[in-house]
Amino acid sequence: MKQWTKSENSLYWRLFFFLYLGGFILGIIFCNLTWRYHIRDVESLREGVVLEKFETGVEKGKFFEYLLFARAGMPLLLIFLGITILGTIAVAVLLLWYGFLAGILLTAALFQMGIRGVGYLLVGMFPQMLVYVPVTAALLLIVCQMSQKFWRPREQTVKRYLRYFLQCFTLFALYLWGILLESYINPVILKHFF
Hints:
The structure is a single chain. The protein is mainly alpha-helical. Helix content is 81%, strand content 0%. The protein is built from 8 helices and no strands. The radius of gyration is 19 Å and the shape is globular. It starts with a helix and ends with a helix.
């Protein structure tokens, strides 16, 4: 049984990779096709733009609260969609969307600042992405597996639901750790680079 679970998980990871890659390629194509038309509408990724937004848009003491409301909604929605048939669909759409956004962001950084722009993006995502990426990947896997079991009601027991919610809320607690890193550690790192 363990061997079957490992092969099932590798199938999920391959599917996740191709969905994300498809969205990523679409994001690159979209940005390349529309860049010349919207170059005046896109805010520059110049040095310091992140810090300017941080310092003027949100008070430092309320930055965690702002990020909590901005970031926590999607994982919570995904957790509850996992107990329905919509969980699998939500995972697929989310992977395409994340890939699409990553493709646009990378392409815009390259267009505006070249390779240096990619470096700035990496600095802007550190250290929170060290938490966000694995936690989100694990959450997507758990939600997708639970959602697919929706069609087999005999397998749905109270014990399975309790285990699912325990796993999900443990991952959500780790996700909150990423929000803490983004709100308190990342601005300090950004100040050293910008």
